[in-house]
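Minutes, project check-in

Agenda point 3 was the complex the collaborators sent over. CS summarized: three entities, 991 residues total, and the question is how they sit relative to each other. Sequences were read into the notes so everyone works from the same version.
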Amino acid sequence: MSRKRSVSDIVVLILLIFGAFIMFMPYWFMVILSFETPEETASVPPHLIPHNPTMENYRKVFIDMNFGLYSLNTAFVAGALVVAQVLFCSMAGYAFARLAFPFRRIIFLIFLSVMMLPTVVIIIPRYLLLKNLHLINTLSGVILLEIFSAFGIFLYRQHFLSLPIELEEAAVVDGASVWQIFWKIVMPLSKNITMSFGLLVFIYGWNLFLWPLIVLTSPEKRTLPIALAMLQGRYFGDWGAMMAGAVVAAVPPIILFILAQKSFIRGIAFGGFK
Amino acid sequence: MRILGGISRKKHAMYFLLFTVASFVFSSLAYYIPFGYGIRLSLTSYDAISKPIFIGFDNFKELFQDPVFWVSTKNSFIYALYVVPTIVILSFLIATGLNKETRLIMFLRVLYFLPMVTSSIAVSLVWKWIFHRDYGILNRIMEFFHLPRQDWLGDPKLALLSVAIVGIWGGLSYNIILFLAGLQNIPKTYYEAAMIDGATKKDMLFYITVPLMSPITFFVLVTTTIWSVQVFDTVFIMTSGGPGYATYTLVYYIYRNGFFWFRMGYGMAIAWVLYGFLLILTIIQFALQRKWVYYE
Amino acid sequence: MARFRFFLIVSLVVAVFSLSFGVTTIRYGVWMVEQMDGIKAQIAAFEKEHPDIKVKLEVVPWENYWTKLQTMLAGGNCWDVFAMDTGFYMEDYVIRGAVLDLTPYIERDHIDLSVYPKMVLAIHRFNGRYYSLPRDYDTIALYYNKDAFDKAGLKYPDESWTWTDVIYAAEKLTIRDKKGNVVQWGIVSDPGLEAVQQVVFPMMYSNGVEIIGKDGHMNIDVPQAVAVLRSIRDITKHGYAPKPLPNIQDYFISGKAAMMLEGSWMLGYYDKNIKSFKWGVAPFPPFGVRATISDSLGNVIWAKSKHKEAAWTFVKWLAGKEAAEILAKTGAVIPAYKGTADMWVKGFPKEHQKDAEVFIKSVAFTNPWPRALGESKWFDRLTSYYLFEIVSGRLDVEKGLKMATEEINRIIDQTKKRYSK
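CS then shared the predicted structure for the full assembly.
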């Protein structure tokens, strides 16, 4: 019995390792191609490690193609989204968790209902709205319509409901205002959830594609995914440079993820459940 | 759910408004206003430069005779058929395998989770190279196993499947995490009790794990369906809808109409039909859940 | 904070300075990545002559150019001056009022239009008005890999070649390995033979097809057009040419194709980048009568530009002799200005000057790009569906062309109706 089990365990483990290998394979080629010369990227059969490693692709990407600037743009979009979403979602989440207001439940449901409306459905009117606000081709335009997150409000509300209300009520007795309670008591107790949520938002913002693709038009406003997409084309059939760009876009979220894996997973798991 | 005590009703209302005003503003900008505007827009012919012209339901009438619309619809659904069942089953199986806390497993988990945090554009570019007819690694592997080389992205019969493979690869991570979280919530005592009763591993899987995981499976099914019907990024990068219309999907067709052919009203009409499809799919799934989802 | 204040002061100072000196900055959008050196040199020369105008260059590759342009126009924030593929897309922008009518400026400044080849100038004229001035033009011809011809023991193509010779050579030049994989294609365009500008349209002209009739409708469901596409399909079917691919890739430059039907715009690029084999150019091999096709780029001004005068100054200069000479020297494209085409030829090394001349001489029998309303929509239908499917062998030639003609004419009529007011 026990021997049989360990055999099946080993089979499972081998399958898992094989799967992980497939999951990882694209990253492997992304990295090695980014160190290859144009001739080598076109070699048949492809090399599994670069024979003449070169930094030329990274030079191209950063010096000739401005990827430094694009990284900053991307970080700005992602960073601003984190700040705005954490701020507004936590506040709204608190209101729905603790504050009385006529039709509060219905308002909450109306907010949540946008989760049923994928943004691609309304992407054209969104674009036209932004046009009327004169925010086309601005990073603020990209950010503005991405600030609202029903998921975030929901997440924070659930979290606040799990906090002991007695603590807050004691503060009320001591004469603290709701504003003070929120910032001095509730938010300090919400570091974990804020960390998880902030991380999710950052990665979401970092990888945004379709929306900035149509909003941003001038080259100096591009974010990394847009800049990457623009690398394709007849005279840019330069796999090395494309892969170097891909590495630049892929690495920061991966580092963040590895550093804060637990928070990240907690965020997703929590949101996915209820 | 308890309301914060010791504060007047008026104060409650005041703070409620203060705390939610930003959400009211931003949700209106991002969702409610575009939603309303989108209804009007779909009834017009609008090229975004000259004035919109009201044309009633002409966009919708045209849409039903538009072969590209139907091809795109078909492609979106075939894509979902490739992707959804595969993701649900694979991510469930992988999650059960990863549901241990050994060092090796923890390391493997990181590899399985990576696609979720990586830009879909970066990923699509690499896959485009992997699928490349002449120097991609996949054809090299095919040759190694004495299989014929394929024109993965150039053959209309294979292109959508190739795009779907990338979709599966990229969509697994998120759902593995959901399943893992669910698995960790199943009390260990259930398994211990079953073991005492002499249940085999297979029994435990089918009589404990699967039923207890059914609510999460349902969630995964619904979200993955909605997500997969909206595929865009991989198509945009890897095939641009080609060869021919082999990988045109609804969202890609909306994008082409709205931002390439000056047809924003028409694009909006397609968007509403897409929305209709998504709602119908969700309703069907909710109707069917009674048959198989087990709630404690 | 201190640093922020510093930036603020600096930018204020810069703003004040530029106001006091009256420098106008105009944005210039182009897609021609391969001509970057020439364009940058043009801008530098222009700015030197016009210190009061600064030109900000913005490059978007062709694959994304038209989408980007559309979103910019819709967003009310567009380039002041931008490159326009006059043949393909101009009409759609003209009927939408997106580009400025230059006729009044041309008359005011007494621009001499006789310095441009007649046929090229015609591409820029819409109902008697000009929206752009000719920058360059192109023709199509046959590039061939001399090494591949030598190896196969074939004579190089020349002006005596017809389409029959091409088919014969393509067969001999197609090489397969033991497993049946093609190592070298006989003939390509980019990348299959379904390319409209480089293959289908010039061959149709050669066979006497009037692609767009006088009534503005498409006419490609005629027997002469069917014959052309049958031939193209058969070459592909026999495997002398690759099946259509969704993404462009250059088989000629990598030595994987012995012949290639391509435009003059590739000559400079190939001259610089092909090192591993010898190559040459022959006139477009006729299917019937001798023919090729021409398109011409122009620079247009955005109708809502706030700097129309500065933009016009720039556009005028770009259509002038000095700009043409700079363009000629870089070898990228054939400048339209009289006399500068020779400079373009001389800009190549001796061995390729003859090849360059082939393109210039082709002007004698060239045809203008066939133009009809709604082209940005029907062109995509024609290429990504009909020609793609026909050449791939999945759609019957006769049936496919008939369907294509019907659908395209429907799009033309719709567009006409929508913009009739």
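Noted in discussion: Chain C touches chain A at residues 27, 33-34, 58-64, 68, 71-72, 74-77, 190, 248-250, 254, 269 (CB under 8 Å).
Follow-up: revisit at the next meeting once the mutant set is ready.
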